[in-house]
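Operator note (shift B, R.M.): manual run for HNH endonuclease requested after the automated queue skipped it. Running by hand, logging everything below so the morning shift can see what happened. Input copied straight from the record, untouched. If output looks odd, do not overwrite the archive copy; leave it for review.
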Amino acid sequence: MVDYGPTWDAARLGELERCDYTCQGCGREHDPETLDDENGVKIHVHHKVKARLFPRIEDAHYPENLIALCSRCHGRVESGKLPDSRPDVRDDVNMY
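Run finished. Output pasted below as returned.
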């Protein structure tokens, strides 16, 4: 697991709260306590511009660079295969 620095937990929680623990890729709702949906799928927070591209990793955690995605959609985004049902999200998540 990557160490995203001391500000990551707060930035991650802020994004999850902003989206009400809902995947922005498929719309799955997740429990705020367990971070699971009804099928046990976890919710993650993805950096649109990869954190490794920033001089300081903490600089990557600004709200406009974060998006909440379930583990399934997160995997699809990382492989470039987010479903066409959300072109607004698909076009936005992989800026670089």
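Quick read of the result: The mean pLDDT is 88. The CA atoms of residues 11 and 18 lie 10 Å apart.
Leaving this for review. - R.M.
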